[in-house]
Design a protein that fits this description.
By secondary structure, this protein is mostly helical. The protein has 4 helices and no strands. The relative contact order is 0.13.
Length: 79
Amino acid sequence: MMTQLIKTISPLRQRMIDDMNMRKLSPKTQIGYIRAVAKLSEYLKHSPAHATSQELRQCQIALAEQGTSNITINATLSG
C-alpha cells in the first residue's frame, strides 16, 4: 500500500510562489528566494508575515556583519 505524503503550504508561502510565477521568475531564482525567506524566518524566530521594519533592519545589519553578499541580503529582504 502506498502512502501519499501531502505537504501543506502556508498561505504566505503560496502567495510568494504565486507572485514569483506571475513575474515569470526562473525555478532557480524561486529556490533562492524561498531559501532566503526561510533564513529570514529562522533569524526572526517567527513568520516573516509579522516582521516589523525594525526587525528587517536588524536582520540586514546582522547579515552584513556576517559578510553576506549584497545580492543575498537583497534577496532575503525582497523575498
